[in-house]
Amino acid sequence: MNKKSDTYHHGNLKEELISIALEMIENEGVEKITLRELGSRVGTSRSAIYRHFSSKNDLIQSVFIAGFEKLDKAILPSLQNDEYILTRLFNMGKEYINFAIKNPNIYRLLFGNNFSNEREESCDIEDKEIACGFHYLVAVVVQAQEKKLFKKDDPMKQAFVIHAMIHGVASMLIDNHSHIKENLDEIYKMSFDTLSSGMLLK
Amino acid sequence: MNKKSDTYHHGNLKEELISIALEMIENEGVEKITLRELGSRVGTSRSAIYRHFSSKNDLIQSVFIAGFEKLDKAILPSLQNDEYILTRLFNMGKEYINFAIKNPNIYRLLFGNNFSNEREESCDIEDKEIACGFHYLVAVVVQAQEKKLFKKDDPMKQAFVIHAMIHGVASMLIDNHSHIKENLDEIYKMSFDTLSSGMLLK
DNA sequence: AAATTATGTTGACAATGTTAACATAACAAG
DNA sequence: CTTGTTATGTTAACATTGTCAACATAATTT
Known about the structure:
Two copies of one chain form a homodimer.
Chain A: H1 13-28, H2 35-42, H3 56-80, H4 85-102, H5 104-110, H6 115-122, H7 125-146, H8 155-175, H9 184-199
Helix pairs in contact in A: 1-2, 1-3, 3-4, 3-5, 3-7, 4-5, 4-8, 7-8, 8-9
Chain A binds a DNA duplex (30 and 30 nucleotides) through residues 7-10, 13, 34-36, 44-48, 50-52, 55-56.
């Protein structure tokens, strides 16, 4: 774990800070994180952080990006096997929701969080990251249209609707209606069927 | 505005604190609020708050409830006119999304926020409040089933799916895909059509 | 009128993000 | 190898914030 004396004084502090911060956020939520604890957890003083990040928010921004990479990594496998295209879409959504349930605090950081405003101000990579995951989805929608599975329509908008649905389910599962988690599979299937039967060509 | 010498020393401080706090959160977001500013904005010292709330979180919990009342008030009219039932559902969703767009910070407080955990611990009124708004929706779904508009299914689950979709659209509009706001009407109609055509009896 | 309770104020404290002044390791140049 | 420069890390201090205790005053009860 502790790759000291690799490159500089302490090893690769910056990456270690990001990964430990991600872990801490995953466990306790963004708002609970403190630079002092992060520093001591990683073996340095609190102020060392400022050699790698201009502020706490700057750090969190990096965790934000790392979180998206983690999400992408969790979803990618479901896209790469060449099953029936709707099955692929189904599995993708399922992995998405699984990620949210397994990492609710990270998921909250990525979507629907109070940090989005500040992010919009200073971070332009963000949009690329979001767009990245989103464009997987758009690509699948385009394929679905090409294979005459989906109605002909603006793929961006169809993808938006799909994403909104999946995000809505994920978000409500982790934040409000946790008692529904027991029927998760059933609920998800129902959401997906509703969605796709609204988009399918008949 | 300042109803002094009504009941006690200062008037009805508690309610005034809640309403000003709501206003402040609406303008700047939950995480920006400070008790000192709230105190001075309302004309008292910071510590007076502790005569009415046990902690900052306790205050925010009250704002949370007030926020739900505000949301209910914004949605109720769309439910009370006796149009075609699907039109009513459509309008309800539209008002819901309008509320989110007009009061994004309050909306974030109500749904998908980091406070939900702490709320779950100490506040049991919350569920009632959420259930309240949610049960409007369930009632409409039940009606839709009775009138043979919707497929026969568990109304709670159908309502959950509808709410998830609407919430997903609202949430993504205010947090991520703000560039879609221009096509809002179109996007919303598309979401709703997708939803209902997935639920309608054919 | 006196006592008790409800409400508000001031001062202090610990925790936190941030910065400045200082220290040291890595590296380049001579 | 020595020296200077840069990259990195440490400690001390500061302002802000939530919270609490001690004190003060108004309202209510007895």
